[in-house]
Structure formats: C-alpha cells, structure tokens
Amino acid sequence: MTKRTFGQHVFSRQSNINLLTYTLLALHSVAYDQLLPVFMHHASQANRPSDPGVQLPFKFSGGFGIDSDRIGVLFTIYGVAGTIIQFVIFPPLARHYGVLNSLKVVTIVFPLVYLATPFTALIPHPLTQQMILFLIMLIKCFATIFAFPCTTILLTNSALSLRLLGTLNGVATSVSAVGRATGPAIGGTMFEVGAVKGWAILPWWVLAGFAMLGAIPVWWLVEMEGFGGSGATTDVEEVEAEEPEMDLPHRQGLEERSEPVAVGSPETVPQSLEETDDFASEDEGLLSSTRLRRMSSPIGLRASPGPGGNRLSNGLGHSRSGFGAGGTSYS
User: Fold this and answer.
1) What is the CA radius of gyration of the chain?
2) In the Cβ-directed half-sphere of 111, how many Cα atoms lie within 13 Å?
3) CA–CA gap between residue 195 and residue 209 (Å, rounded)
4) Could you tell me the end-to-end alpha-carbon distance of the chain, in angstroms, rounded to an integer?
5) What is the pLDDT of residues 305-330, one digit of tens each?
6) Which of 54, 149, 199, 331 is 20 to 30 A off residue 159, Cα-Cα?
7) Distance from CA of residue 104 to its chain's centroid?
C-alpha cells in the first residue's frame, strides 16, 4: 500500500470539496454585500417607459437613487435582524435539520436572491421598492448566516487528523481571502459595464452564476464524524501510546535500585535511599511532564468525549443529538 504524503492527508477529497465551496461562497456573498449600497445609491433611470434603450424585462439601467442616510438606516435594521437570526433562529434549525442539509438549502437560495435583486429597481413606488429590497436582504442574510458556519463545521469535520486541522484551517482562510478579494473586483467591474451599456442585471446575474457553481459541489459533501469516531486518533491517545516507552527505562532503573537493603549496613542504606529518591524524583517529574502534555489538548476538545464526538464544533454536525449551535453542549 502506498503511503500518503502530508499534502494528501491535508487535501483529502472531502477537504478539497469544502475548500472549493467555501471559496465560492466568500466570493459571491461578499461581492453582493459590497454592491448593494452602490446599487441603492445609484440614480434611478428617468423616463424609463419612453427610453428607446430600455427593453424590458431584462435591458434597463439605474438603481434606487436614495441617499446615504436612508441606506444607513436600512443596513442598521439589517444588522439587528441578522443578530436575531444568528442567535435565535439558526441554532434550533441547524440542530434539527443538520448542518449539511441546511447548507444544501441555502446554496439554492443564493442564486434566486441575486437574480431577483436588480428587478426591484423597476418598482415605481419608492417605499414599496425599499420594503421589497429589504425583504430580499433578509433572505440573503438568513442564507449567509447558515452558510458560513455550516461550511466551517463541515470543513473541520473533514480533517483526517487533529494534527492537520491547523494547516487545513490556514489553507481555508487563505483561499477564502482570494474569494473575498476577487468577488468585489468582479462585481464592481460588471456593475460599471452594466451601467454604461444599460444592463443593470449584469453584475447580479454574474454573481448568480458563481452562486450556482458554488451550489454544485455541496451535493458531493459528506457529513463526517470528525475526531470523535472510533477510528479517529487524537493527540491524547498518541501520548498514551508513547507513555510506556518513555517510562519503562526509568521504572526499570527504579526497580533495580530499590531492592531491599540488608539490615545492619548503615553505609549502604543512606546511599541506596538517596539514589532511590533521586530516581523517584526524576520519574515523578517525567510523569508530571506527561500529564501536562496530555492536558494541553487543543481548543475544541472535551475532557471526556460524549455523543457526537469530542470536538466542540461537532455538536451541530449530528442532528437531534442535544447539542447547541456552534457545538455548545448543554448537557
């Protein structure tokens, strides 16, 4: 059997699919959030019915033409609503339906939101226009709040070993940063081209295309057990396996030097006791060091594994297991 390299351990099939999903999610989600205030502030198209360049329902231009104060109020309410969704709605739903099922649903929602956004500019009444756009923003907020934590949990569970988790998270942060940087650049360029050519739908539909691409690999994801499965190996188990090898020579030396001393040998007794105490002290120090190593478990491990694995992030990964959102245990 061919031994796998470190890179092959880090970039397993499930980890690669998760990284691709995470990157595309960051690309289109951040780009949408960056474009939205620009679209709301962009001047609305005057005399749209009589404009020869307008070919409804797809070819039109313009935005909402509202001022920055109103945009700020809308985004403030948007933030408050997002906080409520995060702490009130997300935990029970993710716990009930599971992380992977939740992610599959919201990845379908993203393209629909992006496709519908530019058509809000066609609504004639400003108040109705803003209310409908805000409703779309709430749906997008709902999808985003579910998508990012679920993707992170699945990515963490895809790590083959606890020792690889730091490397995998570092790679995920790097590739998602590429998506966060690329998305606004693509969206901004498409918005400018659309404004010049009279195609207001261009940037939003390009983002919808990326969202559709991001939804495809999700269906090949598997909700893995993580480090709590029977075949998993943790640092604690590795240290326990090493402990007999480390302690055996010292224990043998301790046993050899702690043989009974004949009574009436005053010169030998102090020396033997002193040597025994030295080795006992050394042995105790080694055991203490081993205990410290075993206690220095990475953040995310429970002291005693329970249902759903011994990682705090694994609680949401198992539906209806009695664990709260984000892996918090209420037991």
Assistant:
1) 30
2) 15
3) 19
4) 43
5) 344 444 444 444 444 333 333 443 33
6) 331
7) 15
